[in-house]
Amino acid sequence: MIHGHCKFGREEDGERLLGNVSVAGLFPLTDISVAGLCWAGQLDDAMGLLQDMLQKGMPPSVVAFNSIIAGYSKAGREDKAFEVYRSMAEFGLTPSSCTCSSLLLGLSNRGMLQEAGELLDKMVNKGFPINRVASTVLLDGYFNSGDLIRAHKLWGEMKSRRICPDVVAFSAFIDGLSNAGRMEEAYEAFEDMLRRGITPNNFTYNSLIGGFCNCGKVDYALKLEKEMRQNGLIPDIFNTNMIINGFCKQGSMKAANNTFMHRFGQNPDIVTYNTLISGYIKAFDLVNAEDFLAKMWDSGWQPDIISYNTWIHVFCSSRKIVQAVRMLDELIASGFIPNTVTCNTMVNGVCCDILERAMILTAKLLKMAFVPNVVTVNTLLSQFRRHGLPQMALMWGHKLYLVSFPFDHVTYTILQSTKWDSLQDAEIVKESPGEAIVVDFLMHITFDYIAKDMSYRDKNQRYLSEICDHNLLALGK
Fold first, then answer.
1. What angle do CA 90, 96, 100 make, to 5 degrees?
2. pTM confidence score
3. Contacts of 291 (CB under 8 A, 6+ apart)
């Protein structure tokens, strides 16, 4: 409650409550002081205060340790979180369910799901208190990384461990399945939830509605929305935007526009406008796309990074690279930082441009410190194939494999097709050799970044694994 008061600008109420708690002696003042520093984001100061308490012989508290562990985990500093966890173990304190949840959250947020899963298993084997919050954190992490096998396995383990899922756990499971397009399974989980007497909330319904819209089954989404209203839940702006997006995916722009016209007792937001603009662009209707861009400005909404990326994509796709660069410059001038979508779109455009200008654009991308990802890799590998250089694509694919770069299904599809081209000695060069030079240069830069990043990540994972093992052994004595 004190944290809530501070978060929403009601510091005086927070201080008053803090005083009441201190006077009543409900919690040790030291615990409250450590927690207060964590709420304020002063994590290193909180750690310093805890160490000072321990040096003075004051009895340590699980609450104080948990506050710092949670703070470091949420801040993405899981190495420090495990350092505090190790100190906790040295003082013979048994971790609580909050400790476990915070450590799992830190690992999951960093994408270190294998370590998170191993940690959860070891904690269960040691008999540490694992609640549904900890399991839900890891479940959500598996779904976010696209690992449906481990997500399903964990869901089954929750049942075998008699961890009864609540509305949050069920919603996370349904949302993960919906995002993966597994709508039959998602709806079965929804029905299971109802059979258990658990009442779905807006998030649960929105997950299903969004999933059906993404699969092109807008009729199912509309039926769920009707059911949602009948159960006393009021559809929100997220709900409306998903239905508009569903119609746009179907190419039903008239229905999308009608939804926009008739639903907005709620005020449309930037997502609404971006969705409609993107829908009209995909329908090759630039007149209506520009019309909604004007409506967006008139409504007081300024373009965001998604708006700029959409128009950059339009210009790059039509090989209007000069206009794309102007839009990129406008994006930067507006105070936005180009993201991976911006850069990957520009990379694709650069690969199709004339050599001299392509090198200038490449320099611009480097100046922006662009961070390559699997989409960048897929773009460049497909460009090698397009230029009739399958051996180059296979060579780079092998190098990326050696540094354990995580390919997706698109990467494998490109490499398989490239292997076939190589065997058939296919000749598919369509552009000048200069463009191939640009592609190779961009791949050198991409590989250099990935190789350094992956080696750091592997080192960090081994380090955290060692800490986990050390702490669990210490606590098991």
1. 90
2. 0.66
3. none
In angstroms, what CA-CA distances link 434 with 161, 190, 256, 437? 61, 55, 44, 5
Tokens representing 242 are 């998903």
The amino acid occupying position 254 is K
Residue 57 pLDDT level (bands cut at 50, 70, 90)? confident
Q: Which of 288, 225, 203 is nearest to 254 (CA)?
A: 288
Burial 156-187 (b: 16+ CB within 10 A, else e): eebeeeebebeeebbbbbbbbbbbeebbebbb
CA atoms within 13 A on the CB side of 202: 9
pLDDT digits (tens, 9 = 90+) for 98-128: 777 787 777 777 777 787 787 777 777 777 7
Side-chain-facing half-sphere of 337: CA atoms under 13 Å: 7
Task: Report H helices in 161-299.
Answer: 167-179, 183-195, 202-214, 218-230, 237-250, 253-263, 270-282, 286-298
Radius of gyration for the chain, computed over Cα atoms and rounded to the nearest angstrom: 26
